[in-house]
Amino acid sequence: MHYHRHSEEERRKWQTPETILSDIGLKPDMTFADIGCGRGFFTIPAAKIVGENGRVLAMDVDEESIGLLNERVKKEDLRNIHTITGKAEDKPTCNCCADIVFFGQCLHDFEDPAKVINNARKTIKPSGLLANLDWKKEKMENGPPFEIRFSEEHASSLIKEAGFEVSQIKGSGPYHYIILAKPTHNDADSCDLGRACERVCPTKAFNFIG
Predict the structure, then answer these.
(1) How buried is 141 (Cβ within 10 angstroms: 0-12 exposed, 13-18 middle, 19+ buried)?
(2) pTM above 0.85, yes or no
(3) What's the domain range around 38?
(4) In angstroms, what CA-CA distances link 157 with 94, 104, 125, 160, 162?
């Protein structure tokens, strides 16, 4: 479904990416996976926060958006961003490498949100955090149509079903909410995931997929 996508200038009138990223705990040296990154509204600030020893993985299905993001990356000489063009339903961005997996106002846009969150479960470290920022399920002038928005309850349910424990749900500015969740560790798969991460995800190395 097509609807008006706000420009960065419009979004910054009611949303500050640096503040949101800081509030969810993004710090220098971390690995940040921005799923559905678009043109980099959160990607660019995240790269500046994690610094040269951190990494940002930015995935989007739209080639034009990734192309524009790559132009920004080159212009600002940001060498810690790895862009990926592809469907988030098809594969995780990496194996167990991310300190934070982030969805910025996009979970409702995916063809199969459940698959996307399951892939996020494979991407995240056992100690990592999933953050889902999205539009409130309310009728308003800004944002996507009311009927395609996810309520906090529906988004939380999808996240829990993928093997996460929701730790916090709160408002984020006038139009959005944010859900924070941690991967659960009460099954064999989680234990295997943790051991795999120790093998293939040292601090500055990644097992990229694709």
Answers:
(1) exposed
(2) yes
(3) 12-199
(4) 24, 18, 21, 5, 9
